[in-house]
Amino acid sequence: MRVAIRADASRLIGSGHWVRCLSLAQALREQAADVVLITRDVPPHLAEQAAAAGVALLSLPGREDVRTSAEDVFPADAQQQDIDDLRQALAGEPRCDWIVVDHYGLDARWEAQAATLAPHVMAIDDLARVHQCALLLDQNFYLDAGARYDGRVPADCTLLLGPRFALLRPAFAAARAAVDPRDGPVRRLHIFLGGMDRDNVTEWVLRAAAGVVPAGVQIDVVIGSTHPARASIEALVGAWQGARLHVDTPDMPALLAAADLAIGAGGTATWERCVLGVPTLAVCIAENQRELLGQSARGGLVCAPDDALASPEIFAGHLRALLGNSGLRNHLSRAGLALSDGAGATRVARRMKECCV
Q1: pLDDT for res 256
Q2: How crowded is residue 324: how many other Cβ atoms within 10 Å of its Cβ?
Q3: By CB neighbour count within 10 A (0-12 exposed, 13-18 middle, 19+ buried), where does 203 fall?
Q4: pLDDT at 41
Q5: What are the counts of helices (DSSP H) followed by strands (DSSP E) for the chain?
Q6: Cα 53 from Cα 23, distance rounded (Å)
Q7: 80 burial class (0-12, 13-18, 19+ CB within 10 angstroms)?
Q8: Rounded to whole angstroms, how far apart are CA atoms 222 and 224?
Q9: Quick one: CA torsion of 215, 218, 224, 225, rounded to 10 degrees?
């Protein structure tokens, strides 16, 4: 089975699409698939992650992303150029069995043309958009998950819905074996607001939390190497006794497994924390996370107050309340552990392989 996965990462769109596609690529390789990731101008540290995982990388010609929002769809001519570039990139390669796309800028028009390059097309989505594909994956938690795609996909499209199919690295499932539901006081706090964090929410959160976190609590702050305020965050963390900064860490599963509480954004990291039972004060840092976090909060999986980022004082109040409520933290931890076992990428890879038999 040969699979081509089309995904990008940038300051505008973040790194979540790339990270989950790399997890899928690794799971496909375990199913003896030949996988290539196809991208434009991915940051070097993310390209290095693909190389370290043994996943081939094909780079399309660089083109400026003129969108103002990650949720915007590319104009028709830009989508046509993208599919033409993809066709050219694959021209000298063996024919693919699957084209996988994880990109808000590329829609059903792109997917229809991708079907001329492979017998199967899979779309990864979070926004309940219209698709033209054989397999649709939405790994997010919604109380009405199935209804979201009614009339939005072909009648014969297979839907893989919910965190049971979350695309996580195998290390998360492995780390899960050693964790228990969190109980008792918070001794270790984990802070991660996305691999790109273009609005520097990390620094805002650190300053807002400074007077709330009890002395003696160990704090793990995670950022990417391209963070826009890295130097400022390094200074803040360096001055905070018990705090440690992790840049492009490969140890996220171990850090989360050791955490008693997390402060984090939406996206794939939500399911990483749930799989490891980490109760979370979740904040919305992108519009496409708002519904996801709201649904997850109503499902008892996270604490995600709508006004968490309204002011440092309001944020501090929410954090103080969660720090002081061990019963709520235990409930969130147990709910997360019950939601998913971390083997979603393997499930998806096996389903793709079955379609090629």
Answers
A1: 98
A2: 12
A3: buried
A4: 79
A5: 13, 12
A6: 9
A7: middle
A8: 7
A9: 80
Quote the CA–CA distance of 2 and 317 in Å, as a whole number.
51
Shared domain check, 189 and 89: no
Over the stretch 191-229, which tens digit does the pLDDT of each residue have?
999 989 999 999 999 999 999 999 999 999 999 999 999
- Which range marks the domain in which residue 302 is found? 172-339
Which two tokens mark 202? 């990390």
- Which tokens in the block code for residue 297? 């909060």
- Residue 258: CATH number of its domain: 3.40.50.2000
Q: Which residue has the tokens 């991708």?
A: 114
Neighbours of 162 (CB within 10 A): 19
Asked whether residue 158 falls in the same domain as residue 179, the answer is: no
pLDDT value of residue 343 = 96
Task: Give me the amino acid identity at 165.
Answer: F
Bridge partner list, 36: 4, 56
